[in-house]
Amino acid sequence: MTADPRPLTGEPLALDLLNTRWMREGAVQDLLKDTGGLAVWLRANGLDGRFAADTPTLRHALQARDALHKAVHEGATAPVDAVLGHGRIRATLTAEGPGEAPEFHDPAWGPAWLAARDYLELLGTAPDRIRTCAHEACILHFFDTSRNGTRRWCSMAACGNRAKASRHYARTKES
User: What pTM was estimated for this model as a whole?
Assistant: First the structure.
């Protein structure tokens, strides 16, 4: 079992899919460069028992990631809507009561569709809290759950600390 190499995990599914690309030493890294990386992402999100880490699922996940990137950075809605067209929510009634179940035309669309659906839920909850890390060399995304909604960094230990160190260096260099 391969470990998840990403510096930020545990974000909502839509943002976690975006975070399958990150920067390391000035170069973009991509977890979804092959089906092995897809297997890592599926496992990290509890989807490995439901969906196969195969080429069609990878292709659809990459399409969803690009669609989400366009939605977050450009406000484009059509690409996310196109992904959503491959599934639906079916109302259910079970012994536990009413519920909902996702259905997909093709199971290979499952993870991509679930990520796009999660983005809709984030938009419905607090669209202003979907953020990109403020560090100029970082491309990670997060959902700001801080009480006052002022989180700026994907991680205070990484990007926040680098920004503070840069400011300190600039101040001492001026002196």
Answer: 0.90
